[in-house]
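@here heads up, posting the sequence + SMILES for the magnesium ion run so it's all in one place. Ping me if the SMILES looks off, I pulled it from an old spreadsheet.
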Amino acid sequence: MKVITVANQKGGVGKTTTAINLAAGIAREGKRTLLLDFDPQCNTTSVFFSPEETESSILPMFTENKFDINGVIKETSIHNLFAAPSTIHLAKVERMLAGEIDAPLKAKKTLARLADAFDFVIIDTPPSLGLLTINALVASHFVVIPITPSPWALEGVQDFLDTFKSVKEMFNGTLEILGVLITLFDSRTVLARDATNEIKAMFGPLVFNEVIHRNIRLEESPAYGEDIFGFAPNSSGATSYKKIVKEVLDRASK
Ligand SMILES: Nc1ncnc2c1ncn2[C@@H]1O[C@H](COP(=O)(O)OP(=O)(O)OP(=O)(O)O)[C@@H](O)[C@H]1O
Ligand SMILES: [Mg+2]
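bot reply: prediction finished. Complex structure tokens:
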């Protein structure tokens, strides 16, 4: 079982869009995949669950010992894609865990109990470097960092890299950056191209070859409770995320 976290503390860079379509794309390749939502905004959750279905959520992962996550996992309408709902109450986790010595290890302990029930677990994270994101990184083998090529794209990335390094040193020595994903690319602007070059200069070969362009279908699909492959299989968003899925599977299996 490989665990991949999608993270960047900057808001609106395409974390959720990437987590959903990466998980769905991997599932569509025949791998049993679990999608988890560590963001109290619950954007990922709302694509696959109605509000009534979120009463039992992954919250006890952070608040109870020996939580059995199997009880809240369900198969989605996409074959091989499983998900577990989150709730806005995740916002309380930071406060509830303050002072607990194993606060960063809660997710890792819960996922350890899944053993090899899944080939991949994909975790969406909030736009912050708090305990929820740290729990995701501690529990993961890899992190995918979506970055939007705007003039301030790299602002804050150093803070993320500092957190990544601390997690690696203190809790998870084998954590690796699987790749940096350029998202919401607007080919009409020179700014986007300049920012892309800056991102490539900073991350070199870690940047995935495929770039996700701005695509209206990607923005629409969550509202219909669908991934991009089901919603608009011939869109540029589907074509690009399919290529990213392939790059991710190639890199994760090395
Ligand atoms: N390639 C794209 N083309 C068009 N719209 C996109 C694309 N990627 C994401 N979006 C839209 O941009 C907005 C932000 O994307 P998303 O929610 O994935 O970012 P996020 O990093 O998860 O945000 P947050 O930090 O708030 O969790 C959403 O409305 C989403 O539908
Ligand atoms: Mg999000």
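MO: The chain has eleven helices and seven strands.
MO: One more: The two ends are 14 Å apart (CA to CA).
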